[in-house]
Amino acid sequence: MSGIQVASSEVVRDINRRVVLNLIRTKQPISRADLARVSGLQRSTISLIVEELIAKQWVLEGPTGRLPRGRRPTFLRLNDERVIIGVDIRPTQITVALSDVNGKFASQEAMATPATPKIAMESIVSRVQRLLRSCAGKKMVEGIGISVPGRVDPGSERLVFAPNLHWPDFDLRVPVEKATGCEVELENAANACVLAAVWFDHMDCRNMVVVTVSEGIGTGVLANGHVVRGFSGMAGEFGHVPLDLKGPQCTCGSRGCWEVFASNRAALRYYFESGANAGTAGGLNFLDLLRLADQGDARAAQALETMAHYLGRGMRMIVAGLDPEQIVVIGDLTRAWSRFGPVIQAEVQAQVLPGGVAPRLLPVHEDGMARLRGTVALVLQKHFGVNREVPA
Ligand SMILES: [Zn+2]
Prior knowledge:
By secondary structure, this protein is of the alpha/beta class.
């Protein structure tokens, strides 16, 4: 924190307020004296900012502490009556959840994903309205964060390119805002996972790539401390870079994309193609495949190993292009990390050029929660983010 420049302009006052709010978030309970010490700001500046945050009900004064020599500081913490509604849209399931500002979830409700965005929007709105009614008079709803398995156009903020959802280009934000009266933040699911990692897991890492592996492969990129969205919001679509133009058809219209070789669906295809009993393989899902491999089914184990090789091979693009410090892997495959980790690591290692450093591979075992916590971070970053994206 010592590197933060303090000045007197409006902009810097706003930055100082964010720095203080974020310090309370990460170090709570904390006294005013410790806030001054850790931030490097004047004690009087801290007092002014804290009074403002208390008046606006962002911060509460907690119990009085006891220190030697008779000092009795008052500790500050975030007001957990401020809540955020998170919506995670997946190709098969939509989850609507209520979280406090600390990322602690009070409730979660899941439903099957409707076939059209219009029906999905109406179902989301009715669940959000129910949550709003349950909060009325008790909790302050700060906003709604939505994560989508697609990209968000930076101009129109419409949902574009959601090939695994099979939805057309669609405006989700404005109708949900109009129907609920809450501000809505919309973000790609992999980017939401990047935000969850830096906001809630406090990953002190400015160069990180999150790879989400499920029906498809999503990638979120944090470069030099910023989420990379690109010119048209499409940055990070490594999952749709073809590894083999003669490969199987992809949902994006192209052939042989990384995700048709390395997603959960790819592993099921390998299992099928290996001559596994079609009767059993028909209704199989990826978790069944993991279980079969654990039970000693050699074809299932081989299918997963092939998937792992392709995952690592695809990550070579990420290593060569972005040189991340770490690659966070999210998805059901992390349940069998002893099977996947070493294969992926060896493939990635093979790409590292002389002078380069292999990224750390980090499996995250809480698939659904990473996205949901990302939706909370989306709303938090408006108030807490110093560069409006990642914490101070
Ligand atoms: Zn594709």
